[in-house]
Amino acid sequence: MIQGLIGKKMGMTQIFTDDGRVIPVTMIKAACVVVQKKSIDGQKIKVQLGFVEDKPVKHVNKPQKGHFEKAKVPPTRKLHEFLLHDAEINVGDPIGADIFSENEIVNVLGTTKGKGFQGVVRRWGYAGGRATHGSMFHRQMGSSGSNTYPGEVIKGKGMPGRMGGKSKTVMGLEVVKVDKEHNLLLVKGAVPGCKNNYIYILKESF
User: Fold this and answer.
1) Residue ranges in the chain modelled with pLDDT below 50
2) Which residue, 8, 106, 114, 184, could crosslink 179 as a Cys pair with Cβ 3.0–4.6 Å?
3) CB neighbourhood size of 65 (10 A)
4) Domains along the sequence of the chain with CATH
């Protein structure tokens, strides 16, 4: 059993069940190839997977080129290591979406959409001040701390700053459908990031 796969978010859609219910799903392409196999302290085994793109990858530097030539696999743009347990997997083997099954629970790790520098109203949901009668206090954050004691800004105070663009894991998502022919996973609900973002699909029961 392998811990997970590299995937690419293809977008969201919806499917209908036999009883007429609508299920929102995220479509994920999960097609990988084994680039390297290594052991840690002679006990745990890790495999390095590369995500197989639709088009050939160009502009590979010399160290990367040698790494892929040693494995006898075409160059890939995205590499990641996963744990391996009780499975016979060799370098060069293709690993597809069929390692998952329908109704299986998975965790999906990705990078959220970056929204740049934002104020407290958008970043933390502050109400702001009144919008009329010349208040001059529309979308400001107001006081950031007390005056005399403790005389400093309390740790964790919501303030303006960079929003999004962080690593996030969504846990407990259900695999609704597995398309083995096209290496596609339909996962119930939303996953982090925008379209064509790389994500990691991890088995919850590994």
Assistant:
1) none
2) 184
3) 11
4) 4-114+167-203 (2.40.30.10), 116-163 (no CATH)
